[in-house]
Specification:
Elements (H helix, E strand, L loop, with lengths): L12 E6 L3 H6 L2 H21 L3 E6 L1 H4 L4 H10 L5 E6 L18 E7 L1 H14 L4 E9 L3 H13 L3 E3 L1 H9 L5 H9 L2
Parallel strand pairs: 1-2, 1-4, 2-3, 4-5, 5-6
Helix pairs in contact: 2-4, 2-7, 5-6
Length: 190
Amino acid sequence: MTAPPSRLERDRAVLLVVDIQERLVAAMSPPIAEQTVKNTAILVEAAARFGMPIVCSEQYPKGLGKTVAAVEIALAAAAATTKVQRVEKLEFSLAPHLLGLTLPDAPQWIVTGMEAHVCVYQTARDLLTAGAPAHVVADAVCSRAKQNWRIGLERMREEGSTITSTETTVFDLLGRAGTDEFKALSKLMK
């Protein structure tokens, strides 16, 4: 199943940061974890600049730890200009927890996090089942094993998610060059 093209709209987009936690990051390949954290922080800054809501989840924080420092710092900065909502969960999917949150009508979901084949996959699947477009940012999601990352992305694509990248997402939201937002965000992606 292929999703229809869906241009991201700032007033409808919501950034989901799924379980980028201390013990999960420590279990990842260091370069992959670093890329995921860096790209998620870029997306958090973009969401803040565009006034997009952000939802950050933690899977069983007692066992997996808190959100990693670099993402936490980005979220704290974002909270000055946009709504950052937090969810602690035991379920793998974040989707059931979104019902009681303050979100735009007919949201477009930008999904980042860990692990691609478990919590990210189940979240994207459940969002799609509810009829909501899911844009999964491939270079801002990861799994402990590359094969599981690939399988997670393949399953999400087959089920209708748009698989994208950090740069594609940011430039889709920007829509044009020459703005202060463009100048600030393009520097982050170099």
